[in-house]
Write a structure and sequence with these properties.
139 residues; globular; mainly alpha
Amino acid sequence: MNTWRSPRPLKNFETVYALLRMVTGFFMLFHGWEVFDPALMADYTKWLTDLQFPAPAFMAYLGKSAEFVSGACLMVGFATRFAAIPIILAMLTVAFGMGHGKVWYEDQHPFMFVLLGILFLSGGGGKWSVDAWRGAGVL
């Protein structure tokens, strides 16, 4: 049977899924690392103030902290489904609250992370994760 035309995943699907989860987690962690840069956080706070977000400093730190912590969890596959939720919420805020919903022609990256977050919310940590190692099927 031709595996390329089969509706079933290829044999290496779990490995590809794990790599996708780890790279996505790394990107979230990388962008969340900005929470430790006071100058960048002041810029984000000003941007959110200009956009009339409520509690702009708190929102800036909340968003960047969510990226950092959720990214770290996603990288290792720890509490993967729970970690995907803040990523989805933060990136929806960026795509539609800050980027004004221009996901088709200008601000595709945050929306792509929303879609990846939905994938990891649905699929969990996968075979190569701390969740699988711990036997935590609910996480």
